[in-house]
Amino acid sequence: MSTTSVPSRSSAPQIADRVVEAILAGRVAPGQRLGEQELADVFGVSRTLVREAMARLSARGMVEVSSRRGWFVVQPSRADATEAFSARIAIETGMLNSLDGPLPRSKLARLKAHYKAERAAIAGSDPGERSSLLGDFHVCLAECVSGPLLADILRDLTARTTLVATLFQSTHDAALSCDEHVAIVAALEQGDAAGAAELMRAHIVAVAAALGSPAPQADPLDPLRQALQAHVHATTQPTTRRPRRLFTDLIPPTPTDTRAPQRRHKEN
């Protein structure tokens, strides 16, 4: 996360929401460490408040804690990915199928303004804004079709699938996602809720199908390790030493066992 300071007096829910927004924008990566002191400095709050925010995110499945290393953004498994996308299909198609007519013009206008912003972001140079807007379309749709409760649920689910797409190197094209959003809104404008639901199902399935292999995770200590190894190689001179005699050398050797050694099988 950026270390730029934000207005102080943030509450724990606000801090948690800002972290989720950063995940949606792709600015926080799976496995990234979230230092309590760093976050406290960024938000201008105490570490106690940061811990409360992290506990909220842990309950929402966004972060996990290590007793010795602190808080980390979760690294979803492929099973987690399947579950998250399946949940989104069930919720979003069910939400659309519950409609019994076209959306009000004001809500359609809001959705159209959103996908126009997506197009502008795709044409721009900020991948974070592009990722955030594409993910937030589903939250915006839930707010227009249902209400804040379902929107909050979808915000978390969309953030999880954003982590999945980052971790598994999704190849789904951003412009294609935007086109699929446009088609969903067009179906809603025609009063075709069932058609919109089917388009949404196809859209989420396509995003899930575009997942590739897990991205290699960088070792956060690698730069330090390389620097220290380089220093050791530069300063160490080869020397000839007599081999150290260990106390085990004083123990008489046992008779040679002629039996073939048993092989231990490695658990997979």
UniProtKB/TrEMBL annotation:
It holds the Pfam family FCD. The keyword DNA-binding applies. Residues 9-76 form the HTH gntR-type domain. GO terms for molecular function: DNA binding; DNA-binding transcription factor activity. InterPro entries: GntR_C, TF_FadR/GntR_C, Tscrpt_reg_HTH_GntR, WH-like_DNA-bd_sf, WH_DNA-bd_sf. Keywords: DNA-binding, Transcription, Transcription regulation. The keyword DNA-binding applies. Residues 232-268 are annotated as: Disordered. This is GntR family transcriptional regulator. It comes from Scleromatobacter humisilvae.
